[in-house]
Every structure is written in structure tokens, then in C-alpha cells.
Amino acid sequence: MILERVDIFKTLERLQSNASPAFGIMTPQHMVEHLVFSIRFSNEKEPQKLYFPLEKAEQIKSFVIYSDAELPIGFKAPVLPKDELLPLSYQDLSSAIEMLKLELDAFDSYFKLNPHNSPINPTMGKLTHTEWIVFHNKHFKHHFKQFNLV
């Protein structure tokens, strides 16, 4: 399971829509929508391709999934625009948080129905259910730190 859902949403209750990031250019709503976007990779609602050669992807996967290292500040996934934010998709921060809840539920349902599938992460390639959980946990914590929530 990805983090404790209660903890995720208790943490997000403290997120103010006008909060300034400790790093990066995202607004709070952009950050939550970014998490929604990445969850959609793992439940195959937004299937991805691998952007790196397999050898580099395996190195990234080894670092991200199989080490205790935190995600580095400043890393930008190749699926994202270089120096700009994606347009917002939801009406407001609370709507984005509601969508995050729905996508996390869809993630759980997807892997209950497809336990052996390995959806593609754009930087690491195919990830198993367990590997996606590790990634999402680190990714959430990284962005929660971005807004001083942890």
C-alpha cells in the first residue's frame, strides 16, 4: 500500500493553496496534480514509454527503488516540460486532492485485477506493484518536503 492513506490526507490538510515551495516552481495545486499524474502512470490510465536507454533506466531504478536514498532535488522527469508548469486540470486544490484519492483507489484496484503487470515508469521502465509502491512513497515524501509538510 502506498504510504498510509490517512497520513497522506492528514498531511495534505495542512497544505495551504498559497504556500510557497522550499524548492522548485510548483504551486501546491501543481504538486498535487503532479502526484495524480504519476499515479495515473502506475494504474495505466496514462501509459508511458521509457525515455532513457535501458542501462541508464536500470541505474536510476537501482538508485530510486533499491536504495535508501531520497529523490534528488532538481531531477525533472523527461515527460515534463523543462522550465514551465503543466496547465492545471482541476478547479482548485481541494478538487485535486479528491482526484488524488480516486487515483490511489484506482491504483489499488488495478493491481488487484492485474497483480503481475508492470506498467512503465518513464525514467525507470517496467515497475512491479511493489516497485511502484516504493517509488510513490519516495515521490510523495519528496513533494511533501517541497512544501515543508514533513
- Which band does the percent of strand residues land in? under 5%
Helical residue percent? 40-55%
Global mean pLDDT = 93
Low-confidence region ranges: none
Work out the helix count.
Answer: 5
Number of strand elements: 2
Identify the overall geometry.
Answer: globular
| Oligomerization category of the chains in this entry | single chain
The order of strands across the largest sheet is 1-2
What structural class do the secondary elements suggest? mainly alpha
Instruction: Give the biggest beta sheet.
Output: 2 strands, antiparallel
Rg is 15 Å
**Topology order in helix (H) and strand (E) letters:** HHHHEEH
Structure, described:
The chain is mostly helical and 150 residues long. It has helices spanning 5-13, 28-42, 54-65, 93-113, 129-146; strands at 120-121, 125-126. A two-stranded antiparallel ribbon has the order 1-2. The longest helix is centred in the last third of the chain and has 21 residues, at 93-113. The model has no long low-confidence stretch (mean pLDDT 93).
Summarize the entry for a quick read.
A two-stranded antiparallel ribbon has the order 1-2.
From the structure above, extract its key features.
150 residues; mainly alpha; two-stranded antiparallel sheet
